[in-house]
Design goal:
Elements (H helix, E strand, L loop, with lengths): L3 H6 L1 H14 L3 H12 L6 H18 L6 H8 L3 H5 L2 H7 L8
Helix pairs in contact: 2-3, 2-4, 2-5, 3-4, 4-5, 4-7
GO molecular function: TBP-class protein binding
Protein name: Transcription factor TFIIB cyclin-like protein
Organism: Natrialba aegyptia DSM 13077
């Protein structure tokens, strides 16, 4: 759980997360997990935030059992699939979760 300060500071990004999740028709569990993954390790550079947001959505959807493909998330988030592919396992590891070995 993250502080209200974090949620206020990153409100624009969390709104973007919800819009992407709407496009993907993600469950509330996937959205919640994606939010926690994103807020758990937000990069300081604005140019990296969109890619990390997309990777958090992808990883959150997997954890919640509401998985979407990297391509679908990339399209909905307007990032490259490679941006997600290179970051999603780090999102899980930063949250203390064991990424799959596939």
């Amino acid at each position: 759980m993250h502080s209200a300060r974090d949620r206020i500071e990153y409100d624009t990004w969390l709104t973007e997360l919800e819009q992407i999740a709407d496009r993907l028709d993600l469950s509330s569990d996937a959205r919640s997990c994606a939010t926690e993954l994103f807020l758990g390790d937000v990069p300081p550079e604005d140019r990296s935030k969109r890619a990390v947001l997309a990777a958090s959505i992808y990883a959150g959807s997997l954890v919640a059992g509401d998985g979407r493909t990297q391509g679908a998330v990339a399209d909905a988030a307007d990032v490259s699939r490679l941006s997600i592919q290179t970051r999603w396992k780090d999102r899980l590891a930063a949250a203390g979760l064991e990424p799959p070995n596939w």
